[in-house]
Amino acid sequence: MDQMIGGGGGDAGRFPLETWFWEMPICTRWWTTATMLMSGLVQCELITPFQLFYSYRAVFVKSQYWRLLTTFLYFGPFSLDLLFHVYFLQRYSRLLEESAGRSPAHFSWLLLYAMVFLLILSPLVSMPFLGHPLSSTLVYIWSRRNPDTRLSFLGLLVFSAPYLPWVLMAFSLTLHGTIPKDELMGMVIGHIWYFFTDVYPPLHGGSRPLDPPMWWRRIFEGRPREETTDGINNEIAVAGAPEVAPPEVR
Prior knowledge:
- With 250 residues, this protein is mostly helical.
- It has a domain at 77-223.
- The protein contains eleven helices and two strands.
- It has a two-stranded antiparallel ribbon with strand order 1-2.
- Strand 1 (150-153) and strand 2 (157-160) form a beta hairpin.
- The termini are far apart.
- One of its GO terms (biological process) is ERAD pathway.
């Protein structure tokens, strides 16, 4: 109750929405913020959706490189549909990032992997905005990693978490009458990540081919703890070693 009214500890004086915002992991926090900001700028007519979508010609011929990022940040104008997608984005992105540990290195590498694959596949399916399939990728990975979790859809259908992507696909198909390409792309890319990070390692001696490389981890974590500790121990050992007196000349 103290947290809800902003009292107690470091959250004193904060509103519930502010507390909720700062409790989000860093990648999820800024992705959610950028998504809402992008829709706000379009709503205020400061920019247009035509400046945000991904196009190979616009990016690599006209050098509009910002589209490589904005295509993942625009979900549409302010509406119930936008709130629905932001809810799924924030919820499952947060759950995955929290499960990745305190460092954002692993989760940011997952985002980079998914974004690169989506940009490669985008021209094949004529999908200029890629925020929905990126969100679907995270939903799929979370659902496969939590097979025992029970979910309820609209309070009518109760099912296990691994069925969540299929339920969302069926709902989208019923609502729009077309096969949801964004859900399909998210499932394919998410399954590749899930297989090589959760299924493949136990079968191949712990090998994890999709883990972030060391140079990427250093960006977020600095020098590995083992290297730092070894260096400090060596310095202490050298400093504490007794001095050896030179032999006496007679």
